[in-house]
Design goal:
With 226 residues, this protein is α+β, with helices and mostly antiparallel strands. The protein is built from five helices and seven strands, in the order αααααβββββββ. It has two domains: 2-41 and 85-149, no CATH class; 163-225, Nucleic acid-binding proteins (OB fold (Dihydrolipoamide Acetyltransferase, E2P), Beta Barrel), CATH 2.40.50. α2 packs antiparallel against α4 and α4 (89-111) runs antiparallel to α5.
């Protein structure tokens, strides 16, 4: 155990070890309820890059415009490849960090016993590429699981007009989740705010409409009904 700790905090492994520790601290806060899994989640496919959101750019030439569009397209393709926005980004980062830490530990132990920074660089590079592959492999089944939970299989036909309770950190123009109480298990809905109001965890709201195109529900403050 002592040897493992010494190896983990050796100069060539210290960076990935610190990343792993921060990741563990994050998940502890999630378990304790201080943060949600979607704490750093991004709305990649429902926001600016793909949903016609506003993008502020300064275009001097047609060439620069083409370059900017190409960069956005490349970024969108990369994010889509790793299912960012479809699987919580912190879950993907956790897989990436754990994989990279494991590979760096083994790589430096077997191929860099003298802790040479020169040898550590290619080990880090190979570990990063391999970890990205591992992350992609794990992301595929995770996406299917999240798709299954996000389809509202148990949602009744008539949800509009019912009171719900926000369960994520916040709900604004970016999607969050809320629960509708029933006689049995509560119904979990993907929701966004129907206006500029920002809801926080535990707030009560009323379901006002369903966006059929996006498959989400719009909620509004209860006082609007008064």
């Amino acid at each position: 155990m002592i040897d493992l700790i010494q190896t983990a905090f050796s100069p060539v492994n210290a960076v990935v070890t610190v990343m792993l520790i921060l990741n563990v601290i994050y998940w502890i806060t999630v378990i304790l309820g201080a943060l949600d899994v979607d704490f750093l989640d991004v709305e990649l496919f429902d926001s600016g890059l793909e949903a016609g959101g506003d993008v502020d750019v300064d275009v001097d030439t047609e060439g620069e415009l083409d370059l900017d569009m190409s960069q956005n397209s490349a970024l969108r393709s990369i994010m889509h490849f790793f299912y960012v926005g479809e699987v919580p980004i912190m879950l993907l980062l956790s897989i990436l960090i754990l994989s990279m830490w494991t590979l760096c530990m083994f790589g430096n132990h077997y191929f860099n016993p003298k802790s040479s920074f020169l040898l550590a660089l290619p080990i880090y590079a190979i570990s990063l590429v391999s970890s990205l592959v591992i992350c992609r492999i794990f992301a595929m089944p995770l996406k299917k699981i999240y798709d299954m939970f996000n389809k509202d299989y148990n949602a009744p036909k008539k949800v509009t007009g019912r009171i719900c309770i926000v369960t994520t950190t916040s709900v604004s123009d970016k999607m969050g989740q809320a629960e509708v109480k029933t006689k049995g298990a509560p119904i979990v809905l993907n929701v966004i705010s129907d206006g500029e109001h920002v809801f926080h965890k535990g707030d009560e709201a009323i379901v006002v409409a369903r966006d059929e195109e996006k498959g989400i529900y719009r909620i509004a403050p209860l006082d609007l009904e008064k």
